[in-house]
Amino acid sequence: MMNRLLSVANLSVSFGNREIIHDLSFDVHEGDCVAIIGPNGAGKTVLLSTLLNLIPYRGEIRWSRDARLGYVPQKVAADRQLPLSAKDLLRAKARFLKLPAAELQAVSAELGLTDELLSTSMGELSGGQFQKMLIAFALLGRPNVLLFDEPTASLDELTEEHIYELLNSLQKEKGITVLLVSHDLSIVYRNANMVLCLSSKGKTCMGPPKEILTPEMLQDLYATPPHYYQHVHEHERNHESRIAHEPEKW
Fold first, then answer.
1. pLDDT, tens only, 53-88
2. Is 193 in contact with 208 (CB distance < 8 Å)?
3. φ and ψ at 125, to 5 degrees?
4. CB within 8 A of 27, min separation 6: which ones?
5. Mean pLDDT, residues 32-57
6. Which of 21, 71, 129, 158 is the most exposed, fewest CB within 10 Å of its CB?
7. For the purposes of burial, counting CB atoms within 10 Å of the CB of 141, is it exposed (0-12), middle (13-18) or buried (19 or more)?
Protein backbone atom coordinates (compact mmCIF):
# COMPACT_ATOMS: atom_id res chain seq x y z
CA MET A 1 0.00 0.00 0.00
CA MET A 2 1.41 3.39 -1.01
CA ASN A 3 1.84 6.06 1.64
CA ARG A 4 -1.00 8.55 1.98
CA LEU A 5 0.17 12.03 0.96
CA LEU A 6 -3.10 13.90 1.37
CA SER A 7 -6.23 13.39 3.43
CA VAL A 8 -9.23 15.68 2.93
CA ALA A 9 -12.20 15.34 5.31
CA ASN A 10 -15.54 17.18 5.28
CA LEU A 11 -14.16 20.04 3.19
CA SER A 12 -16.53 22.93 2.44
CA VAL A 13 -15.73 26.21 0.71
CA SER A 14 -18.11 29.17 0.39
CA PHE A 15 -17.99 32.57 -1.26
CA GLY A 16 -20.54 34.74 0.51
CA ASN A 17 -23.81 32.81 0.63
CA ARG A 18 -22.79 30.47 -2.17
CA GLU A 19 -21.27 27.13 -1.20
CA ILE A 20 -18.89 25.97 -3.95
CA ILE A 21 -17.62 22.75 -2.34
CA HIS A 22 -19.76 20.83 0.15
CA ASP A 23 -18.56 18.18 2.60
CA LEU A 24 -15.87 16.70 0.32
CA SER A 25 -13.66 13.86 1.56
CA PHE A 26 -10.96 11.95 -0.32
CA ASP A 27 -7.40 10.62 -0.01
CA VAL A 28 -4.42 10.81 -2.35
CA HIS A 29 -1.60 8.28 -2.15
CA GLU A 30 2.01 8.43 -3.22
CA GLY A 31 2.34 7.97 -6.99
CA ASP A 32 -1.33 8.63 -7.75
CA CYS A 33 -2.49 10.64 -10.73
CA VAL A 34 -5.85 12.02 -9.63
CA ALA A 35 -7.88 13.74 -12.34
CA ILE A 36 -10.43 16.28 -11.14
CA ILE A 37 -13.37 16.65 -13.53
CA GLY A 38 -16.74 18.37 -13.54
CA PRO A 39 -18.75 21.09 -15.28
CA ASN A 40 -17.81 24.76 -15.21
CA GLY A 41 -18.55 26.26 -11.81
CA ALA A 42 -18.24 22.97 -9.93
CA GLY A 43 -15.20 24.21 -7.98
CA LYS A 44 -12.24 22.46 -9.63
CA THR A 45 -9.90 25.46 -9.54
CA VAL A 46 -11.28 26.43 -6.14
CA LEU A 47 -10.34 22.97 -4.84
CA LEU A 48 -6.73 23.30 -5.99
CA SER A 49 -6.47 26.77 -4.47
CA THR A 50 -7.90 25.45 -1.22
CA LEU A 51 -5.43 22.55 -1.12
CA LEU A 52 -2.68 25.17 -1.45
CA ASN A 53 -4.19 27.03 1.54
CA LEU A 54 -4.98 30.08 -0.59
CA ILE A 55 -8.71 30.14 0.24
CA PRO A 56 -10.47 29.92 3.62
CA TYR A 57 -12.30 26.64 4.19
CA ARG A 58 -14.09 24.47 6.73
CA GLY A 59 -13.06 20.90 7.35
CA GLU A 60 -9.65 19.28 7.34
CA ILE A 61 -6.81 19.20 4.82
CA ARG A 62 -3.87 17.16 6.02
CA TRP A 63 -0.73 16.91 3.89
CA SER A 64 1.98 14.40 4.77
CA ARG A 65 5.12 15.90 6.28
CA ASP A 66 6.96 14.58 3.22
CA ALA A 67 4.76 16.48 0.75
CA ARG A 68 6.52 19.19 -1.27
CA LEU A 69 4.06 21.00 -3.52
CA GLY A 70 4.44 22.47 -6.99
CA TYR A 71 1.63 24.30 -8.79
CA VAL A 72 0.94 25.09 -12.44
CA PRO A 73 -2.02 27.51 -12.69
CA GLN A 74 -4.45 27.68 -15.58
CA LYS A 75 -3.72 31.37 -16.04
CA VAL A 76 -1.00 33.69 -14.85
CA ALA A 77 -2.14 37.14 -13.76
CA ALA A 78 1.01 38.84 -14.99
CA ASP A 79 1.77 41.20 -17.84
CA ARG A 80 3.62 39.06 -20.37
CA GLN A 81 4.83 42.25 -22.03
CA LEU A 82 7.15 42.98 -19.12
CA PRO A 83 10.80 43.04 -20.22
CA LEU A 84 11.55 39.73 -18.51
CA SER A 85 12.95 36.57 -20.03
CA ALA A 86 12.02 33.04 -19.01
CA LYS A 87 15.44 32.72 -17.36
CA ASP A 88 14.82 35.88 -15.31
CA LEU A 89 11.66 34.39 -13.83
CA LEU A 90 13.22 30.99 -13.10
CA ARG A 91 16.33 32.58 -11.59
CA ALA A 92 14.14 34.70 -9.29
CA LYS A 93 12.49 31.60 -7.82
CA ALA A 94 15.82 29.77 -7.59
CA ARG A 95 17.27 32.70 -5.62
CA PHE A 96 14.21 32.83 -3.37
CA LEU A 97 14.58 29.11 -2.58
CA LYS A 98 18.37 29.47 -2.33
CA LEU A 99 18.87 26.75 -4.92
CA PRO A 100 22.23 26.11 -6.58
CA ALA A 101 22.58 27.12 -10.23
CA ALA A 102 22.97 23.44 -11.09
CA GLU A 103 19.33 22.76 -10.17
CA LEU A 104 18.02 25.40 -12.56
CA GLN A 105 20.22 23.93 -15.28
CA ALA A 106 19.00 20.40 -14.50
CA VAL A 107 15.31 21.34 -14.59
CA SER A 108 15.81 23.26 -17.85
CA ALA A 109 17.54 20.25 -19.39
CA GLU A 110 14.80 17.85 -18.23
CA LEU A 111 12.14 19.96 -19.93
CA GLY A 112 14.18 20.70 -23.05
CA LEU A 113 14.37 24.44 -22.38
CA THR A 114 17.16 25.65 -24.66
CA ASP A 115 19.36 28.68 -23.99
CA GLU A 116 17.57 30.43 -26.83
CA LEU A 117 14.16 29.80 -25.29
CA LEU A 118 15.34 30.83 -21.83
CA SER A 119 16.65 34.12 -23.23
CA THR A 120 13.37 34.88 -25.00
CA SER A 121 11.15 37.54 -23.47
CA MET A 122 7.93 36.31 -21.89
CA GLY A 123 5.71 38.02 -24.44
CA GLU A 124 7.42 36.26 -27.35
CA LEU A 125 7.04 32.71 -26.05
CA SER A 126 4.52 30.47 -27.80
CA GLY A 127 1.71 28.94 -25.77
CA GLY A 128 3.56 25.63 -25.48
CA GLN A 129 6.86 27.29 -24.55
CA PHE A 130 5.15 29.42 -21.92
CA GLN A 131 3.47 26.34 -20.44
CA LYS A 132 6.76 24.44 -20.28
CA MET A 133 8.31 27.44 -18.55
CA LEU A 134 5.51 27.37 -15.95
CA ILE A 135 6.12 23.64 -15.39
CA ALA A 136 9.85 24.33 -14.96
CA PHE A 137 8.94 27.05 -12.43
CA ALA A 138 6.81 24.52 -10.52
CA LEU A 139 9.57 21.88 -10.57
CA LEU A 140 12.20 24.12 -8.98
CA GLY A 141 12.66 22.92 -5.42
CA ARG A 142 12.02 19.30 -6.44
CA PRO A 143 8.36 18.90 -5.42
CA ASN A 144 6.95 15.38 -5.10
CA VAL A 145 3.37 16.57 -5.64
CA LEU A 146 2.30 18.64 -8.65
CA LEU A 147 -1.06 20.38 -8.94
CA PHE A 148 -2.05 21.23 -12.52
CA ASP A 149 -5.05 23.37 -13.42
CA GLU A 150 -5.85 22.53 -17.05
CA PRO A 151 -2.19 22.62 -18.10
CA THR A 152 -2.96 22.58 -21.83
CA ALA A 153 -5.77 25.13 -22.01
CA SER A 154 -5.60 27.12 -25.28
CA LEU A 155 -2.83 24.92 -26.76
CA ASP A 156 -3.04 23.22 -30.13
CA GLU A 157 -3.52 19.43 -30.19
CA LEU A 158 0.11 18.51 -30.94
CA THR A 159 1.53 20.80 -28.25
CA GLU A 160 -1.11 19.51 -25.83
CA GLU A 161 0.00 15.93 -26.50
CA HIS A 162 3.65 16.83 -25.90
CA ILE A 163 2.80 18.50 -22.58
CA TYR A 164 0.88 15.45 -21.36
CA GLU A 165 3.70 13.14 -22.47
CA LEU A 166 6.01 15.31 -20.37
CA LEU A 167 3.72 15.10 -17.33
CA ASN A 168 3.41 11.34 -17.76
CA SER A 169 7.19 10.91 -17.87
CA LEU A 170 7.62 13.08 -14.76
CA GLN A 171 5.20 10.88 -12.88
CA LYS A 172 6.68 7.57 -14.01
CA GLU A 173 10.38 8.46 -13.88
CA LYS A 174 10.37 10.58 -10.74
CA GLY A 175 7.42 9.08 -8.88
CA ILE A 176 5.69 12.45 -8.70
CA THR A 177 2.11 12.47 -7.47
CA VAL A 178 -0.21 14.48 -9.72
CA LEU A 179 -3.53 16.24 -9.14
CA LEU A 180 -4.83 17.28 -12.53
CA VAL A 181 -7.83 19.37 -13.56
CA SER A 182 -8.80 18.51 -17.12
CA HIS A 183 -11.80 18.69 -19.44
CA ASP A 184 -10.27 16.19 -21.87
CA LEU A 185 -11.62 12.80 -20.89
CA SER A 186 -9.27 10.95 -23.24
CA ILE A 187 -6.34 12.44 -21.30
CA VAL A 188 -8.01 11.52 -18.02
CA TYR A 189 -8.60 7.95 -19.20
CA ARG A 190 -5.01 7.50 -20.35
CA ASN A 191 -3.16 9.15 -17.46
CA ALA A 192 -5.20 9.02 -14.26
CA ASN A 193 -5.52 6.05 -11.94
CA MET A 194 -8.25 7.84 -9.96
CA VAL A 195 -10.94 10.33 -10.97
CA LEU A 196 -12.54 12.82 -8.59
CA CYS A 197 -15.85 14.22 -9.81
CA LEU A 198 -17.15 17.58 -8.66
CA SER A 199 -20.72 18.51 -9.51
CA SER A 200 -22.42 21.89 -9.52
CA LYS A 201 -25.29 20.05 -7.77
CA GLY A 202 -23.01 19.31 -4.82
CA LYS A 203 -22.61 15.61 -5.60
CA THR A 204 -19.14 14.09 -5.62
CA CYS A 205 -17.72 10.72 -6.53
CA MET A 206 -14.26 9.15 -6.79
CA GLY A 207 -12.95 5.98 -8.34
CA PRO A 208 -10.89 4.44 -11.17
CA PRO A 209 -11.51 5.82 -14.69
CA LYS A 210 -13.26 2.64 -15.87
CA GLU A 211 -15.83 3.05 -13.10
CA ILE A 212 -16.28 6.81 -13.38
CA LEU A 213 -16.06 7.51 -17.11
CA THR A 214 -19.25 5.74 -18.12
CA PRO A 215 -22.06 7.37 -20.11
CA GLU A 216 -24.43 7.08 -17.16
CA MET A 217 -22.04 8.64 -14.63
CA LEU A 218 -21.04 11.43 -17.00
CA GLN A 219 -24.61 12.25 -17.93
CA ASP A 220 -25.47 12.55 -14.24
CA LEU A 221 -22.35 14.64 -13.59
CA TYR A 222 -22.78 17.08 -16.46
CA ALA A 223 -26.60 16.94 -16.59
CA THR A 224 -26.45 16.52 -20.37
CA PRO A 225 -25.79 13.53 -22.63
CA PRO A 226 -22.03 13.26 -23.22
CA HIS A 227 -20.63 13.18 -26.76
CA TYR A 228 -17.95 10.66 -27.60
CA TYR A 229 -15.61 9.93 -30.45
CA GLN A 230 -12.82 7.41 -30.85
CA HIS A 231 -9.64 9.32 -30.08
CA VAL A 232 -6.45 7.68 -31.37
CA HIS A 233 -3.12 9.49 -31.68
CA GLU A 234 -0.76 8.37 -34.43
CA HIS A 235 1.59 6.61 -32.00
CA GLU A 236 -1.39 4.71 -30.54
CA ARG A 237 -2.68 3.48 -33.87
CA ASN A 238 -2.21 -0.17 -32.95
CA HIS A 239 -3.44 0.21 -29.40
CA GLU A 240 -6.87 0.58 -27.91
CA SER A 241 -9.02 3.53 -28.82
CA ARG A 242 -9.57 6.15 -26.19
CA ILE A 243 -12.73 7.91 -25.11
CA ALA A 244 -12.89 11.64 -25.50
CA HIS A 245 -15.57 14.31 -25.35
CA GLU A 246 -16.24 17.48 -27.24
CA PRO A 247 -15.64 20.33 -24.78
CA GLU A 248 -17.81 22.79 -26.67
CA LYS A 249 -20.85 20.56 -26.09
CA TRP A 250 -20.34 20.72 -22.34
1. 999 999 999 999 999 999 988 766 556 667 888 899
2. yes
3. -75, 140
4. 4, 6, 7, 8
5. 93
6. 158
7. middle
